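Researcher: Here's the sequence for the chain we discussed earlier.
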Amino acid sequence: MKHSCSRRCSTAAGLGDEQFPILAWKGTHRRKAFDNLSCRGRGCLTARVTGGCLFTAARPVILNGIEDMVTRPDLADRVIMLTLNPITEAQRRPESVLWCEFEIARPNNLSALLEAAADGLRALPEVRLERLPRMADFALWATACETARWPPVSFEAAYCNNRRSAVENVIDADPVAAWVRDLMAERTAWAGTASDLLQAGAEDRRGNAIAEKKRQPP
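Model: Thanks. This is the structure I predict for it:
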């Protein structure tokens, strides 16, 4: 996105187990990208995105990683998750060819961004949403800009689906939450203590082990 507006663009920074890289770029860039992010240090990233206790300002952050690093609900509710398809050998291009094609598309890219921003500035005072998500100002601004390229309510539908997928990823990453979801898939209500739930989980696990053993050939 920044390349569409300027040739001066910072590269993606690495982020390991320390918080120093996040502290260092306070106020230096409007948008920062972290490449090959691990699961460590996500709490300070959440605060950085939303202007939490660490900072008095908020900045958009781009996170890139191989593993699924968004496994905490507080971060999952603040992100837009994109899963990219693998690049096959037939699709790979030299970097020189890639940037040559980008330079050809740059004017159209910048024009589209400016048109969306102009539509957003014009429509924002009139935008009203029935329910505001956690990132309320972002949702209002994106809704105001969407009519430059898409029909009304397109962003709201896409954003809701993306947040739902993020919640599913959080549940899948937590074995207890995933089991509770499977438990409730076959019923509308369940009542009991935590000990009862633990016992039900143990019984379910034993039942699955027995069923798996019966399916195995003698």
